Amino acid sequence: MEIRSAVRSALEKLSAGDRILIACSGGADSLALSWAVAVEAPRLALQVSAVTIDHQLQDGSEKQSERVLEQLAELGIDDGEVVKVKVDMRDGLEASARRARYEALNEVAERRGASKIFLGHTQDDQAETVLLGLARGSGTRSLSGMASESGRYLRPLLGITRQQTMAVCEEAGLTPWSDPHNHDLQFLRVRVRNRALPVLEETIGPGVSAALARSAALLRDDADALDEWAGREFRSMDWSSMDVEYLSALPRAVRTRILRMAAYAAGSPAGSILTEHVGAIEALVTSWHGQGEVSLPGGVKVHRLSGRLSLLAPKPNLTQDLN
Q1: Which CATH architecture has domain 238-323?
Q2: The predicted structure's pLDDT at residue 114
Q3: Which residues are CB-contacts of 8 (< 8 A; sequence separation ≥ 6)?
Q4: CA-wise closest residue to 275 among 94, 129, 141, 150
């Protein structure tokens, strides 16, 4: 069976005695993942823990979380727990809930000594992610979608469809939970899933989701290669004072990556540098007309002087330090 094979391939990267953590919401995808892990992990002498995150956003969420543990126990996964989180609404419900969920997963993995966290994202999730990136006009890295392995996170089902996970649940006698949020059209991803992708399948032809997922894999290879090239260049130079002529000779895809790296090295907060910021810095390199310095998040300043691009880190607040 494809799901067992996909999960087995991920588990074989680990060593006997390692502990893994399954993130299980009770939906078809994560239940199918849990079933496959429950079958394959004992053969490799791996220890299995599971967690379900209660976001406390819906009535009855506590009861549903307990039902998830019951189904996991039926699969032979007895080491499970429910973790309740408080969702801090800083940037929309979807993003805020995701942030709270991943923070909780990291905490549980640390506490349990789990080397890897298994997530149930499927090919359909990957297609949705790529389509959302296209709609935003994102770059190669964003369009490459979710990685099958990212740090401690493993997503072995990215080549498996949602239809396949539902079939596994039916065969295994599992009862998936249908999260009401997955049908709420106020969420962009739900509109993509329930409206945009079906229209594409109808008008372009079947297989759009699979094609988007394949594109993501190809783009990830490209993004990894460009990141590696840019990283080598960045490590070989003084990022605080870079030669403009040298930068301008590099391919734009490499140059813009270097400029982003330099901005973070100079002190801009992680994730704060947007395409607009990179474009303003690049203009100092490729469209120089005597313009003034560029201000970046975190107080970083970039200016061009005597053929060099200089990045100035923010000065420390001595008064605050003394206090």
Answers
A1: 2-Layer Sandwich (3.30)
A2: 97
A3: 36, 40
A4: 141
